[in-house]
Design goal:
This is C2H2-type domain-containing protein. By secondary structure, this protein is an alpha+beta fold. Helices cover 15% and strands 25% of the residues. The chain has a 4-stranded mixed β-sheet with strand order 2-1-3-4, covered by helices on one side. Strands 5-6 form a two-stranded antiparallel ribbon. It has 2 domains: 69 residues, no CATH class; 49 residues, no CATH class. It is elongated.
Amino acid sequence: MTDVGLGDFKRQCGIEEAKKIQEFLAPNYQIKIFSKDHLNALIYQGDEAAKIFHLYLHDNHFDLITKMPAFMGRSYFCEKCNIGYCHKEDHKCNHETCPGCNNEQKCQLENWVKCTDCNRWFMSRTCFDNHKNDKVATKKGKVQKPKHQRWVLTK
Protein backbone atom coordinates (compact mmCIF):
# COMPACT_ATOMS: atom_id res chain seq x y z
CA MET A 1 0.00 0.00 0.00
CA THR A 2 2.95 2.31 0.52
CA ASP A 3 3.71 2.10 -3.25
CA VAL A 4 0.24 3.50 -3.87
CA GLY A 5 0.76 6.28 -1.35
CA LEU A 6 -1.69 5.01 1.27
CA GLY A 7 0.69 4.12 4.08
CA ASP A 8 0.04 1.00 6.15
CA PHE A 9 -2.84 -1.48 5.96
CA LYS A 10 -4.27 -0.60 9.36
CA ARG A 11 -6.84 1.98 8.37
CA GLN A 12 -10.20 2.17 6.67
CA CYS A 13 -10.35 2.61 2.92
CA GLY A 14 -13.09 4.23 0.91
CA ILE A 15 -13.69 5.33 -2.66
CA GLU A 16 -10.85 7.87 -2.68
CA GLU A 17 -8.35 5.19 -1.66
CA ALA A 18 -9.79 2.81 -4.26
CA LYS A 19 -9.23 5.49 -6.92
CA LYS A 20 -5.55 5.70 -5.93
CA ILE A 21 -5.24 1.92 -6.13
CA GLN A 22 -6.94 2.04 -9.55
CA GLU A 23 -4.38 4.58 -10.78
CA PHE A 24 -1.60 2.28 -9.59
CA LEU A 25 -3.10 -0.82 -11.30
CA ALA A 26 -3.96 0.87 -14.62
CA PRO A 27 -3.84 0.12 -17.51
CA ASN A 28 -3.83 -3.64 -16.86
CA TYR A 29 -6.63 -3.80 -14.29
CA GLN A 30 -10.01 -2.17 -13.74
CA ILE A 31 -11.72 -1.81 -10.36
CA LYS A 32 -15.52 -1.85 -10.10
CA ILE A 33 -17.15 -1.15 -6.74
CA PHE A 34 -20.68 -2.18 -5.78
CA SER A 35 -22.13 -0.75 -2.56
CA LYS A 36 -24.45 -2.12 0.10
CA ASP A 37 -25.53 1.44 0.95
CA HIS A 38 -26.66 1.92 -2.67
CA LEU A 39 -28.70 -1.31 -2.92
CA ASN A 40 -25.72 -3.22 -4.37
CA ALA A 41 -25.45 -0.79 -7.29
CA LEU A 42 -22.23 0.08 -9.10
CA ILE A 43 -20.83 3.25 -7.55
CA TYR A 44 -17.36 3.40 -9.12
CA GLN A 45 -15.52 1.94 -12.07
CA GLY A 46 -12.04 2.66 -13.35
CA ASP A 47 -11.03 2.81 -16.98
CA GLU A 48 -11.79 -0.30 -19.01
CA ALA A 49 -9.09 -2.99 -18.87
CA ALA A 50 -8.67 -6.65 -19.73
CA LYS A 51 -8.72 -7.78 -16.09
CA ILE A 52 -11.36 -6.65 -13.60
CA PHE A 53 -11.55 -6.64 -9.81
CA HIS A 54 -15.15 -6.53 -8.56
CA LEU A 55 -15.37 -5.20 -5.01
CA TYR A 56 -18.30 -5.03 -2.59
CA LEU A 57 -18.26 -2.10 -0.17
CA HIS A 58 -20.16 -2.66 3.06
CA ASP A 59 -19.75 -1.36 6.59
CA ASN A 60 -16.53 0.51 5.64
CA HIS A 61 -15.01 -2.73 4.36
CA PHE A 62 -14.26 -4.13 0.87
CA ASP A 63 -14.82 -7.77 -0.10
CA LEU A 64 -13.74 -9.31 -3.39
CA ILE A 65 -16.63 -10.54 -5.53
CA THR A 66 -15.39 -13.68 -7.26
CA LYS A 67 -18.50 -14.42 -9.36
CA MET A 68 -20.61 -11.50 -10.51
CA PRO A 69 -23.56 -13.61 -11.76
CA ALA A 70 -23.86 -15.22 -8.32
CA PHE A 71 -23.56 -11.84 -6.59
CA MET A 72 -26.38 -10.50 -8.79
CA GLY A 73 -28.47 -13.66 -8.36
CA ARG A 74 -28.48 -14.21 -12.12
CA SER A 75 -27.00 -16.67 -14.61
CA TYR A 76 -24.93 -14.10 -16.53
CA PHE A 77 -23.33 -10.70 -16.02
CA CYS A 78 -22.55 -8.17 -18.76
CA GLU A 79 -19.31 -6.26 -18.06
CA LYS A 80 -20.20 -3.61 -20.65
CA CYS A 81 -23.54 -2.50 -19.18
CA ASN A 82 -22.97 -3.84 -15.63
CA ILE A 83 -26.19 -5.79 -15.23
CA GLY A 84 -27.04 -9.37 -14.43
CA TYR A 85 -29.51 -11.34 -16.54
CA CYS A 86 -30.95 -14.84 -16.71
CA HIS A 87 -31.23 -15.67 -20.41
CA LYS A 88 -28.29 -15.00 -22.72
CA GLU A 89 -30.45 -14.53 -25.80
CA ASP A 90 -32.62 -11.92 -24.07
CA HIS A 91 -29.78 -9.54 -23.18
CA LYS A 92 -29.19 -6.91 -25.82
CA CYS A 93 -26.86 -4.00 -25.28
CA ASN A 94 -24.72 -1.69 -27.34
CA HIS A 95 -21.47 -3.63 -27.17
CA GLU A 96 -20.29 -5.85 -29.99
CA THR A 97 -21.97 -9.24 -29.76
CA CYS A 98 -21.80 -11.66 -32.64
CA PRO A 99 -24.91 -11.30 -34.82
CA GLY A 100 -24.67 -14.97 -35.76
CA CYS A 101 -24.20 -16.94 -32.57
CA ASN A 102 -24.85 -14.12 -30.05
CA ASN A 103 -21.46 -14.75 -28.45
CA GLU A 104 -20.14 -11.93 -26.25
CA GLN A 105 -17.31 -11.29 -28.70
CA LYS A 106 -17.91 -10.85 -32.41
CA CYS A 107 -16.70 -13.88 -34.39
CA GLN A 108 -14.11 -13.35 -37.12
CA LEU A 109 -15.07 -14.00 -40.74
CA GLU A 110 -13.28 -17.13 -41.97
CA ASN A 111 -15.48 -19.40 -44.10
CA TRP A 112 -19.25 -19.08 -44.17
CA VAL A 113 -21.12 -22.11 -42.77
CA LYS A 114 -24.84 -22.67 -43.33
CA CYS A 115 -27.15 -24.18 -40.71
CA THR A 116 -29.57 -26.48 -42.51
CA ASP A 117 -31.95 -26.42 -39.52
CA CYS A 118 -32.67 -22.67 -39.62
CA ASN A 119 -31.19 -21.66 -43.03
CA ARG A 120 -28.92 -19.03 -41.47
CA TRP A 121 -25.28 -18.43 -42.38
CA PHE A 122 -22.45 -18.18 -39.83
CA MET A 123 -19.05 -16.49 -40.21
CA SER A 124 -16.95 -19.52 -39.21
CA ARG A 125 -17.13 -23.10 -37.96
CA THR A 126 -16.70 -21.78 -34.40
CA CYS A 127 -19.60 -19.35 -34.88
CA PHE A 128 -21.75 -22.19 -36.24
CA ASP A 129 -20.75 -24.50 -33.36
CA ASN A 130 -21.64 -21.76 -30.84
CA HIS A 131 -25.04 -21.48 -32.53
CA LYS A 132 -25.67 -25.23 -32.32
CA ASN A 133 -24.12 -25.80 -28.86
CA ASP A 134 -26.47 -28.58 -27.72
CA LYS A 135 -29.49 -26.61 -28.84
CA VAL A 136 -32.03 -26.93 -31.62
CA ALA A 137 -32.24 -24.20 -34.26
CA THR A 138 -35.76 -23.08 -35.16
CA LYS A 139 -37.01 -21.68 -38.46
CA LYS A 140 -37.33 -18.22 -36.87
CA GLY A 141 -33.55 -18.15 -36.45
CA LYS A 142 -33.70 -18.31 -32.68
CA VAL A 143 -31.95 -21.10 -30.86
CA GLN A 144 -33.85 -22.95 -28.18
CA LYS A 145 -33.25 -25.97 -26.03
CA PRO A 146 -35.76 -28.72 -26.74
CA LYS A 147 -38.59 -28.67 -24.18
CA HIS A 148 -39.23 -32.38 -24.45
CA GLN A 149 -38.01 -35.44 -26.27
CA ARG A 150 -40.35 -37.47 -28.45
CA TRP A 151 -39.63 -41.19 -28.42
CA VAL A 152 -40.85 -43.44 -31.21
CA LEU A 153 -41.02 -47.14 -30.45
CA THR A 154 -40.71 -49.57 -33.31
CA LYS A 155 -40.97 -53.35 -33.40
